[in-house]
Amino acid sequence: MNTNSRTFRTKLSEFFDMAVKKPVAIARGTDRFVLMNEEEYLNLKDEVLSLQRNLLASLEVREGKTVTTETPASFEKLFDDTSAKVKKKYQVKQAAGE
To answer: Phi and psi at residue 97, in whole multiples of 5°?
Structure first.
């Protein structure tokens, strides 16, 4: 759905109802805005973050910044060491019951 800012102001509640189902594009002069429900917005943000992480991981692989483990035990040690570094760096607290 597309609209201009004047129509948007006069039919605000209708556009909120429409945005529950699909995004609404609003033009104001040369600027354009999108009205959408919060869940859809958060899903888009999560998808962008996931794509960014995948891109960074692909670049690291391409640059040879990878680690190879020989056994399941060496993988577990690598995982535990990496987890400890991340927890220390970001000051992650232990969950109750752990």
So the answer is: 90, -5
pLDDT band at residue 83 under the 50/70/90 scheme: confident
Q: Are 37 and 18 in contact (CB under 8 A)?
A: no
For the purposes of burial, counting CB atoms within 10 Å of the CB of 39, is it exposed (0-12), middle (13-18) or buried (19 or more)? Answer: exposed
**DSSP β-ladder status, 2-4 and 31-35:** unpaired
Question: Distance between CA atoms of 14 and 16, rounded to whole angstroms?
Answer: 5
Q: How confident is the model at residue 36 (pLDDT cuts 50, 70, 90)?
A: very high
Token reading at 47: 């998808």
pTM above 0.70, yes or no: no
What are residue 2's DSSP bridge partners?
Answer: 25
Q: In degrees rounded to 5, what are phi and psi of residue 4?
A: -105, 170
Distance CA 91, CA 11 (A): 48
